[in-house]
Amino acid sequence: MEKEIAHALLSIGAVFLRPEQPFTWASGIKSPIYCDNRLILSAPEVRTLVEEGLAKMVKEHYPQCEMLMGTSTAGIAHAAISATILGLPMGYVRSEAKSHGRNNRIEGKMPEGTKVVVIEDLISTGGSAIDVVDALREAGGEVLGIVSIFTYGMKKGLERIAAAGTENHSLCCLDPLVDVAVEEGRIAPEWKDRILAFRDNL
Questions:
Q1: Which residues of 7-21 are buried (b: 16+ CB within 10 A; e: fewer)?
Q2: 124 and 27 in contact (C-beta within 8 Å)?
Q3: How many other C-beta atoms lie within 10 A of the C-beta of residue 102?
Q4: I need a labelling partner for 77 at 20 to 30 A (CA). Which of 37, 44, 57, 154 fits?
Protein backbone atom coordinates (compact mmCIF):
# COMPACT_ATOMS: atom_id res chain seq x y z
CA MET A 1 0.00 0.00 0.00
CA GLU A 2 2.75 2.48 0.92
CA LYS A 3 4.57 2.05 -2.39
CA GLU A 4 1.31 2.22 -4.35
CA ILE A 5 0.40 5.49 -2.64
CA ALA A 6 3.96 6.79 -3.13
CA HIS A 7 3.80 6.08 -6.87
CA ALA A 8 0.39 7.74 -7.09
CA LEU A 9 1.50 10.90 -5.25
CA LEU A 10 4.64 11.22 -7.37
CA SER A 11 2.74 10.60 -10.61
CA ILE A 12 0.45 13.60 -10.11
CA GLY A 13 3.13 15.90 -8.71
CA ALA A 14 1.61 15.98 -5.22
CA VAL A 15 5.11 15.30 -3.88
CA PHE A 16 8.19 16.84 -5.46
CA LEU A 17 11.74 15.73 -4.65
CA ARG A 18 14.26 18.34 -5.71
CA PRO A 19 17.45 17.89 -3.69
CA GLU A 20 19.59 19.79 -6.19
CA GLN A 21 17.32 22.88 -5.99
CA PRO A 22 15.65 22.92 -2.54
CA PHE A 23 12.24 24.41 -1.86
CA THR A 24 11.84 27.13 0.77
CA TRP A 25 9.15 26.31 3.33
CA ALA A 26 7.12 29.04 5.04
CA SER A 27 9.41 28.60 8.05
CA GLY A 28 12.42 29.49 5.90
CA ILE A 29 13.77 25.93 5.96
CA LYS A 30 15.43 24.83 2.73
CA SER A 31 13.89 21.44 1.92
CA PRO A 32 14.54 18.84 -0.80
CA ILE A 33 10.86 17.86 -0.66
CA TYR A 34 7.58 19.68 -1.18
CA CYS A 35 4.17 18.11 -0.60
CA ASP A 36 0.84 19.40 -1.95
CA ASN A 37 -1.84 16.79 -1.32
CA ARG A 38 -4.57 19.16 -2.52
CA LEU A 39 -3.73 17.95 -6.02
CA ILE A 40 -5.19 14.55 -5.09
CA LEU A 41 -8.70 16.01 -5.28
CA SER A 42 -8.36 16.81 -8.99
CA ALA A 43 -6.99 13.37 -9.91
CA PRO A 44 -9.96 10.94 -9.72
CA GLU A 45 -8.05 7.65 -9.85
CA VAL A 46 -5.54 8.72 -7.20
CA ARG A 47 -8.32 10.29 -5.14
CA THR A 48 -10.21 6.99 -5.11
CA LEU A 49 -7.07 5.11 -4.07
CA VAL A 50 -6.33 7.56 -1.26
CA GLU A 51 -9.87 7.84 0.12
CA GLU A 52 -10.39 4.08 0.09
CA GLY A 53 -7.02 3.75 1.80
CA LEU A 54 -7.97 6.24 4.50
CA ALA A 55 -11.30 4.49 5.07
CA LYS A 56 -9.59 1.10 5.29
CA MET A 57 -7.04 2.45 7.78
CA VAL A 58 -9.77 3.93 10.00
CA LYS A 59 -11.69 0.67 9.92
CA GLU A 60 -8.57 -1.40 10.64
CA HIS A 61 -7.10 0.66 13.48
CA TYR A 62 -10.25 2.25 14.92
CA PRO A 63 -13.25 -0.06 14.35
CA GLN A 64 -15.07 1.71 17.20
CA CYS A 65 -14.87 5.08 15.40
CA GLU A 66 -18.19 6.98 15.36
CA MET A 67 -17.19 10.16 13.49
CA LEU A 68 -14.43 11.60 11.30
CA MET A 69 -13.14 15.13 11.84
CA GLY A 70 -11.09 16.87 9.15
CA THR A 71 -8.40 19.44 9.78
CA SER A 72 -9.06 22.82 8.22
CA THR A 73 -8.71 23.20 5.36
CA ALA A 74 -6.72 20.42 3.74
CA GLY A 75 -8.29 17.53 5.63
CA ILE A 76 -11.93 18.51 5.12
CA ALA A 77 -12.55 16.96 1.69
CA HIS A 78 -10.67 13.78 2.58
CA ALA A 79 -12.67 13.40 5.80
CA ALA A 80 -15.92 13.92 3.89
CA ILE A 81 -15.17 11.35 1.19
CA SER A 82 -13.78 8.78 3.64
CA ALA A 83 -16.79 9.25 5.91
CA THR A 84 -19.08 8.62 2.94
CA ILE A 85 -17.28 5.34 2.20
CA LEU A 86 -17.58 4.31 5.85
CA GLY A 87 -21.13 5.56 6.30
CA LEU A 88 -20.05 7.79 9.20
CA PRO A 89 -20.87 11.37 10.15
CA MET A 90 -18.11 13.94 9.69
CA GLY A 91 -17.22 17.45 10.62
CA TYR A 92 -14.18 19.66 10.70
CA VAL A 93 -12.26 21.90 13.05
CA ARG A 94 -11.43 25.47 12.11
CA SER A 95 -8.01 26.92 12.84
CA GLU A 96 -9.85 29.43 15.02
CA ALA A 97 -13.45 30.12 15.99
CA LYS A 98 -15.63 32.12 13.59
CA SER A 99 -15.95 35.80 14.47
CA HIS A 100 -19.64 35.83 13.54
CA GLY A 101 -22.80 33.72 13.74
CA ARG A 102 -22.48 31.03 16.42
CA ASN A 103 -18.72 31.52 16.73
CA ASN A 104 -18.15 27.84 16.03
CA ARG A 105 -14.72 26.33 15.85
CA ILE A 106 -15.99 22.77 15.44
CA GLU A 107 -18.40 22.31 12.55
CA GLY A 108 -20.75 19.33 12.59
CA LYS A 109 -22.76 17.85 15.46
CA MET A 110 -20.48 15.95 17.83
CA PRO A 111 -22.27 14.75 21.00
CA GLU A 112 -20.11 14.53 24.10
CA GLY A 113 -18.24 11.24 24.30
CA THR A 114 -18.27 10.66 20.53
CA LYS A 115 -15.36 8.46 19.43
CA VAL A 116 -13.55 10.51 16.79
CA VAL A 117 -10.70 9.99 14.32
CA VAL A 118 -8.93 13.06 12.94
CA ILE A 119 -8.20 13.08 9.19
CA GLU A 120 -5.12 15.08 8.17
CA ASP A 121 -3.48 15.37 4.77
CA LEU A 122 0.12 15.88 5.90
CA ILE A 123 2.03 15.41 9.16
CA SER A 124 5.28 17.31 9.56
CA THR A 125 5.85 18.68 13.07
CA GLY A 126 2.35 17.56 14.08
CA GLY A 127 1.32 20.96 15.41
CA SER A 128 -1.88 21.52 13.43
CA ALA A 129 -3.18 17.99 14.02
CA ILE A 130 -2.50 18.21 17.77
CA ASP A 131 -4.30 21.56 17.88
CA VAL A 132 -7.36 19.83 16.38
CA VAL A 133 -7.08 16.94 18.85
CA ASP A 134 -6.99 19.42 21.76
CA ALA A 135 -10.04 21.31 20.46
CA LEU A 136 -12.06 18.10 20.08
CA ARG A 137 -11.13 16.93 23.57
CA GLU A 138 -12.11 20.29 25.04
CA ALA A 139 -15.50 19.91 23.34
CA GLY A 140 -16.01 16.47 24.89
CA GLY A 141 -14.91 14.25 22.01
CA GLU A 142 -12.95 11.05 22.60
CA VAL A 143 -10.12 11.21 20.06
CA LEU A 144 -9.00 7.73 19.06
CA GLY A 145 -6.14 8.83 16.83
CA ILE A 146 -5.04 10.62 13.67
CA VAL A 147 -5.06 9.13 10.17
CA SER A 148 -3.09 10.99 7.50
CA ILE A 149 -2.20 10.65 3.84
CA PHE A 150 1.51 11.38 4.17
CA THR A 151 4.04 11.93 6.94
CA TYR A 152 7.64 13.00 6.79
CA GLY A 153 8.30 10.98 9.95
CA MET A 154 10.15 13.85 11.61
CA LYS A 155 11.34 13.07 15.13
CA LYS A 156 9.81 16.28 16.44
CA GLY A 157 6.42 15.37 15.00
CA LEU A 158 6.51 11.83 16.38
CA GLU A 159 7.47 13.09 19.83
CA ARG A 160 4.79 15.80 19.89
CA ILE A 161 2.04 13.41 18.86
CA ALA A 162 3.12 10.90 21.52
CA ALA A 163 3.31 13.66 24.16
CA ALA A 164 -0.26 14.65 23.27
CA GLY A 165 -1.38 11.14 24.18
CA THR A 166 -2.43 10.15 20.69
CA GLU A 167 -1.02 8.40 17.59
CA ASN A 168 -0.83 8.76 13.84
CA HIS A 169 -1.28 6.15 11.13
CA SER A 170 -0.33 7.29 7.64
CA LEU A 171 -0.87 5.82 4.18
CA CYS A 172 2.68 6.69 3.19
CA CYS A 173 5.86 8.08 4.69
CA LEU A 174 9.09 9.51 3.30
CA ASP A 175 11.16 6.30 3.28
CA PRO A 176 9.09 4.26 0.76
CA LEU A 177 8.42 7.41 -1.25
CA VAL A 178 12.15 7.99 -1.74
CA ASP A 179 12.61 4.31 -2.65
CA VAL A 180 9.92 4.59 -5.34
CA ALA A 181 11.41 7.84 -6.63
CA VAL A 182 14.78 6.09 -7.08
CA GLU A 183 13.16 3.03 -8.71
CA GLU A 184 11.30 5.24 -11.18
CA GLY A 185 14.36 7.34 -11.99
CA ARG A 186 12.90 10.53 -10.55
CA ILE A 187 16.00 11.13 -8.42
CA ALA A 188 19.54 9.77 -8.55
CA PRO A 189 20.23 6.93 -6.07
CA GLU A 190 22.89 9.00 -4.30
CA TRP A 191 20.26 11.54 -3.28
CA LYS A 192 18.31 9.05 -1.16
CA ASP A 193 20.49 9.24 1.94
CA ARG A 194 20.71 13.04 1.69
CA ILE A 195 16.93 13.42 1.64
CA LEU A 196 16.44 11.06 4.59
CA ALA A 197 19.24 12.81 6.51
CA PHE A 198 17.44 16.13 6.00
CA ARG A 199 14.33 14.64 7.62
CA ASP A 200 16.25 13.00 10.45
CA ASN A 201 18.14 16.19 11.33
CA LEU A 202 15.10 18.46 11.61
A1: bbbbebebbbbebee
A2: no
A3: 7
A4: 154
Angle between helices 2-11 and 44-61 (to 10 degrees): 150
Q: How far is CA 125 from CA 16, 154, 162, in A?
A: 19, 7, 12
pTM of the model: 0.92
| Total count of residues recorded for the chain | 202
Tell me the C-alpha distance between 99 and 167, whole Å: 31
Instruction: Give which of 102, 93, 97 is closest to 141, Cα–Cα.
Output: 93
Count of CB atoms situated within 10 Å of the CB of 41: 17
Which residues have C-beta within 8 Å of that of residue 76, sequence separation ≥ 6?
70, 92
Q: What is the DSSP letter of 105?
A: S
99 — pLDDT class (breaks 50, 70, 90): very low
Q: What Å distances lie between residue 67 and 40, 72, 90, 133, 171, CA to CA?
A: 23, 16, 5, 13, 19
